[in-house]
Design a protein that fits this description.
- There is one protein chain.
- This protein is mainly alpha-helical.
- Among the domains are: 173-289; 301-360; 396-454, Methyltransferase, Methionine Synthase (B12-binding Domains), Chain A, domain 1 (Orthogonal Bundle), CATH 1.10.1240; 467-645, Lysozyme (Orthogonal Bundle), CATH 1.10.530.
- It has 38 helices and two strands.
- Strands 1-2 form a two-stranded parallel ribbon.
- α2 runs parallel beside α4, α23 packs across α24 (366-375) and α25 (396-406) runs antiparallel to α26.
- It starts with a helix and ends with a strand.
């Protein structure tokens, strides 16, 4: 107990303004010890704090620590005592995994549910059936699982060896799986499968060559026989490459279509791919390739890229016609209404342009703000809300969730939240949002607003969180707080433990190598990726990184944004030959994710500017011309507009 007290006293000198209570600090220490299996510390804490609401989490941590010992009875007792706890599923899953890992096959079979999750766990299930002689229908089950173009876990090896030993592996099955591996370009698995074949058909060599040297082999394929298997191999490879190398495939595909009798559908698929990805590279043959497509292939994506191509080339009459030819559902979207107005203005349809801009200026988004700037109109902000009803008794799971959140045990807090949230009515959930806001759980607030369709409750959807810290860091790095808050809103929705598919982490979504580099420059100690989930540490690195990007790209907001999302190399590439007009530049970027990202950030920054300063800068402030091909940056559409602030109104 002396050790726990010493740690608590140490922590008291380091906690921030949202300091934990002594009870909470003691619990955190006890929980860490419980995860190490220290029962005495747990007993001491529970004796001193018998009514603390998270005491069962200490029991859970002890069970987790003892999982190798398979504490089945203790887990059953825990579940009986905590029937509504989300920890029950966690314990059951951990126990099931450990049984499989230890080869406790009979018990594993009794607990295993289905194969929708881990492939390793499903392999253990198949292995368990072998070991328990439950083999009825097993060979087919193994074959179905084995039949994948992707590589499978090592845990599957004993299962597949048994299956092969039973005489179920054949060249016919190997060829079938080889084709699946070819479809996903899994060359390593394809090569392995070839080693198992008793007889290798001639086309196998073609397939391996297409995976290893695709361009060279496709040219050679013009000498191959036109048969079903060769056609399939060539088609799949061209289909894959048409999105990566549309210029190369454009001419080669013409020759291949003459040599091979592809189906109408196959030809149409590749033709469309080449046309679409030629557009993203703004290749000269783009419009011809698109016009050559069958009418049924002129879908929303093709329509959009036709317009972008014309915008990129500055062909306003063609852009106007392309937009006007869009189907009604597409044309009515804010994006294309804005470009219809711009094209109208450029082609002497001034009255039409003004009508569209005035109507669009009533929207509280990127396109509405741009339209208002063109017409020198105020911005439109109409709030939206519903009245919440009192929560007479907060569900126990939600009480646990808020306590865990305060302890920074957010993953577990989220599980409790899900369980408790279901118990509330719609209007009670609105009240819950207010409670979560006061407690600083901002990403739950924005999630509730979205679930309740309260998209125009700006104060709740755009929290002024970490306001003091962001203001200090923004001032230090010569940024504006609304800029930083907008980045956070889009990157993580204020979720401190957010992790992206690219393993970017925390409020401002930083990856490990970037964090290491920035920490070194700032003289901060960086120990692990987990540190990026600490709000202030993440803010320190993220704001400094934003300053770096602004410095690198001549203080240009769009370039800072595009490089933050797509990388600095791409941002530099888009400064060669692209339009200098910022709205056109942002629309003609090839990456959909980056285009949408910039639109959302610029919407966010304008809303935050309004919430913080009441009279926001016009969105044009953030949109100077681009320094394309070394040109000088200048105000857009002109200095008078871009330096204005605007009034705000609500006209229903």
């Amino acid at each position: 107990m002396l050790r726990a007290c010493a740690i608590i006293l140490c922590l008291l000198f380091t906690v921030n303004a949202n300091a934990l209570t002594l009870e909470q600090l003691a619990f955190k220490t006890a929980y860490k010890d419980a995860l190490k299996g220290n029962e005495k510390i747990v007993e001491a804490f529970k004796k001193g704090k018998p009514s603390y609401r998270l005491n069962h989490y200490l029991d859970y941590a002890l069970l987790k620590a003892a999982m190798k010992n398979l504490p089945e009875t203790a887990i059953e007792d825990f579940i009986k005592q905590n029937k509504k706890s989300p920890l029950n599923d966690l314990l059951n899953n951990m126990l099931t995994y450990e049984l499989g890992k230890q080869g406790q096959w009979q018990k594993y079979l009794a607990r295993y549910k289905n194969n929708k999750g881990s492939q390793t766990k499903h392999c253990w299930y198949l292995h368990a059936r072998i070991e328990t002689a439950d083999v009825k229908g097993l060979p087919q089950a193994i074959q179905d699982f084995w039949m994948s173009g992707l590589s499978l876990p090592d845990a599957c090896n004993p299962v597949f060896k048994w299956w092969e030993k039973q005489g179920h592996l054949s060249d016919k099955l190997l060829i079938k799986r080889f084709k699946l591996a070819y479809k996903v370009n899994n060359a390593s698995t394809a090569r392995y499968l070839v080693t198992k074949m008793k007889k290798r058909q001639a086309w196998i060599k073609h397939a391996l060559s297409l995976m290893e040297q695709p361009n060279k082999t496709l040219k050679k394929s013009l000498q191959w026989q036109d048969n079903k298997i060769n056609r399939e191999l060539v088609y799949l490879k061209v289909k894959s490459l048409s999105s990566k190398q549309p210029d190369t495939m454009y001419m080669l595909w013409k020759a291949l279509k003459k040599h091979y009798n592809f189906t109408v559908k196959e030809k149409a698929t590749v033709d469309r791919n080449i046309a679409l990805f030629a557009a993203t590279d703004y290749l000269p043959f783009t419009i011809k390739a698109m016009n050559d497509l069958a009418p049924a292939q002129h879908d929303a994506q093709i329509n959009a890229w036709k317009v972008r191509y014309y915008l990129y080339k500055g062909r306003w009459k063609s852009a106007y016609k392309a937009i006007k030819s869009m189907p009604a559902f597409q044309l009515q979207k804010d994006r294309w209404q804005y470009w219809l107005a711009r094209a109208s203005a450029k082609t002497k349809h001034q009255k039409k342009a003004k009508e569209i801009f005035v109507k669009l200026a009533k929207k509280s988004n990127y396109y509405g703000f741009l339209a208002a700037d063109h017409m020198r109109m105020p911005y439109q902000f109409c709030s939206q809300d519903i009245t919440g009803t009192p929560i007479t008794k907060m569900p126990e799971n939600l009480e646990n969730a808020f306590e865990l959140f305060a302890l920074d045990m957010i993953t577990l807090a989220r599980k409790e939240w899900i369980a408790g949230y279901r118990e509330l009515s719609t209007t009670q959930r609105r009240t819950l949002a207010d409670i979560a806001y006061k407690k600083g759980w901002y990403n739950k607030v924005t999630a509730i607003m979205g679930a309740l369709n309260l998209w125009r409750n700006y104060e709740m959807r755009y929290p002024l969180a970490y306001k003091k810290e962001i203001a200090q860091l923004a001032k230090k790095h010569q940024l504006q707080p609304q800029w930083v808050m907008s980045i956070i809103t889009q990157e993580s929705a204020w979720q401190t433990d957010a992790i992206s598919r690219a393993d970017a982490r925390g409020l401002m979504q930083l990856i490990d190598p970037t964090a290491k580099r920035l920490s070194k420059k700032l003289g901060l100690k960086y120990s692990s990726k987990q540190q990026l989930h600490q709000a202030y540490f993440n803010l320190q690195l993220g704001t400094f990184y934003q300053r770096e990007l602004f410095n690198r790209f001549e203080e240009h907001p769009l370039l800072a944004l595009s490089s933050y999302n797509a990388g600095e190399t791409k941002a530099n590439h888009w400064l060669q030959g692209f339009p200098a007009s910022p709205d056109i530049w942002a629309e003609t970027i090839p990456y959909r994710e980056t285009r949408d990202y910039m639109v959302k950030i610029l919407t966010n920054v304008t809303i935050y500017d309004w919430l913080i300063n009441k009279t926001p800068k016009r969105i044009s402030y953030w949109l100077p011309t681009l320094p394309v091909d070394g040109k000088t940056i200048k105000a857009w559409p002109n200095k008078k507009v871009s330096e204005q602030t605007t009034t705000v109104r609500c006209v229903q």
